[in-house]
Every structure is written in C-alpha cells, then in structure tokens.
C-alpha cells in the first residue's frame, strides 16, 4: 500500500478513480492513502475502500481528507467495513444470519439460537401470515445486500435457497416452493447428489457430495449467486453459479425434507 501511495504522490500520476474494495486494507494502509491525498499533486476524485478494515482512526483520517477544500476527493466508499474483512477469499464477506420463527413450517423445529432447523413431527407454532403452511421451509430474518457469504452444515435431504421475500407462503402451489418459481434459486443436497433449480428448471450436477458443508456467495451488484462445497480444511469447490438481476428484497432460506441444516 505504501508503494501505491507513493505513486499517487507522484506529479506524473493523473489517476482519478481508485477501487480497492475487498483488498484487506487496514488502518496502516489508510494512513498511507491519507498522506498521499494531502499532496497537492493528487488528482484522485473517487476512492472505493468498501469491504476493508480501516478502523475508526483510518475512517477519520480519510474523511478529514475528503472534507479538505484543497483535496479533489469527492467520493469516498467506506461501507461494509470490519475486522472480518481482512480474512482471505470469500470469507471476508461473511454474514451472520438467524432463522425467522415466524416463517418456519410446523414440521420443522428451530434450535441453537434459531441457527439450526431440523425435520420433526408436527410442532406447535402460532398462526402467522408469513409462515409456510405446506412446504417444509424457513427464511432467515436478515436481507441480503452488497456481497454476502455464509456457510451451512447439513444432514439428509435439504434445499439451500436464496429467495425473494415476496415468495408465497400458503398452500401447495409451486409459487411457494423454493426453486419452483422465478422468485427463488436452490441447491439440492443429499448424500448421493447435488442439483440446482430455478423457476422449475432443474440441472443435475456431476460428482458425489464429499462434504456436509455448503458455502453460498451472493454478489448483488454483479447479479451472481454461487454455491460451493466446503471441505474439512476449508477449501472451496465451486458447484454452480446463477446469473441474474436481483429486483426485490431477498434473503437466505432452507427446506428440510429429512435431516437438518445449521448455519455456521
């Protein structure tokens, strides 16, 4: 980062836009960038540091540069910051989710602080307009925004889903079932196979599952949804990517026909 900042200090540098999103930049790197922005020779107008770990001091340093009337910087991106952003690979986009008890079907039960769902005999839940009354499904509370990565450990036959929150909740209609409509995308997992489905268009994936853990990565601006198999040593193996344009609020969800799913 110091070498880059030295380059920005050069009178020969005419760079106006610098995008460093998700580059594991810490407060030290932000200090070097702030120093470069003090230079009268800096032409930088836009600096994207989203998904990094600038710390509070780094935020203050860079924000002060932007407010300086002598500094040309007009756009500074510091959103989605935090210590987890300096983790390698997709894990820098890790998100924590909880399952929504108002949506869970009565044949499923929640445990571990609403982070695990498993298939049981009929369970007593109060009536709720958002509850799935036929399909054995549950949604997460949190909406997906920006870039999000999460993992789930499963047993048995389950669907790992991403769905618009407007998906139907009542009755046996395909409008309510994950993967059977244009509002949802799923990875089906069993001990024998993987498959993916969207709008009732199913694709069988090659290879037999070698892990019980699945990773999911959503890049909202890029319009991509990717599924991965996660090995015991945390190696990610790509399974499938859907390309789409997300047009409504959406979230993670799970369907459990037998077995369980636990958010990790």
UniProtKB/TrEMBL annotation:
This is B30.2/SPRY domain-containing protein. Keywords: Metal-binding, Zinc, Zinc-finger. It comes from Pygocentrus nattereri. It comes from the Eukaryota. InterPro entries: B30.2/SPRY, B30.2/SPRY_sf, Butyrophylin_SPRY, ConA-like_dom_sf, E3_ubiq-ligase_TRIM/RNF, Leu-rich_rpt, LRR_dom_sf, PRY. Residues 77-264 form the B30.2/SPRY domain. GO terms for molecular function: zinc ion binding. It holds the Pfam family LRR_6. GO terms for cellular component: cytoplasm.
């Amino acid at each position: 980062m110091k070498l880059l900042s030295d380059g920005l200090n050069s009178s020969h540098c005419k760079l106006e836009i610098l995008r460093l999103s998700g580059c594991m930049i810490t407060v030290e790197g932000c200090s070097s960038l702030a120093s470069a922005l003090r230079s009268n020779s800096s032409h930088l107008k836009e600096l994207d540091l989203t998904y990094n770990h600038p710390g509070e001091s780094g935020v203050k340093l860079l924000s002060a540069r932007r407010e300086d009337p002598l500094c040309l910087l007009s756009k500074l991106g510091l959103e989605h910051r935090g210590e987890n952003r300096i983790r390698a690979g997709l894990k820098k986009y890790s998100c924590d989710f909880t399952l929504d008890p108002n949506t869970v079907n009565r044949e499923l039960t929640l445990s571990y602080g609403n982070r695990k769902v498993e298939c049981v005999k009929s369970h007593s839940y109060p009536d709720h307009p958002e509850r799935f009354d036929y399909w054995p499904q549950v949604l997460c509370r949190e909406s997906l925004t920006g870039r999000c990565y999460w993992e789930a450990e499963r047993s048995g036959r389950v669907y790992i889903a991403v769905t618009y929150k407007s998906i139907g909740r009542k009755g046996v209609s395909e409008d309510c079932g994950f993967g059977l409509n244009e509002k949802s995308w799923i990875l089906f997992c069993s001990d024998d196979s993987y498959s993916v489905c969207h709008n009732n268009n199913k694709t069988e994936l090659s290879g037999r599952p070698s892990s019980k853990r699945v990773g999911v990565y959503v890049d909202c601006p890029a319009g991509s949804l990717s599924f991965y198999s996660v090995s015991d040593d945390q190696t990610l193996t790509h399974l499938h990517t859907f390309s789409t344009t997300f047009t409504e609020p959406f979230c993670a969800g799970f369907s459990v026909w037998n077995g369980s799913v636990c958010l990790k």
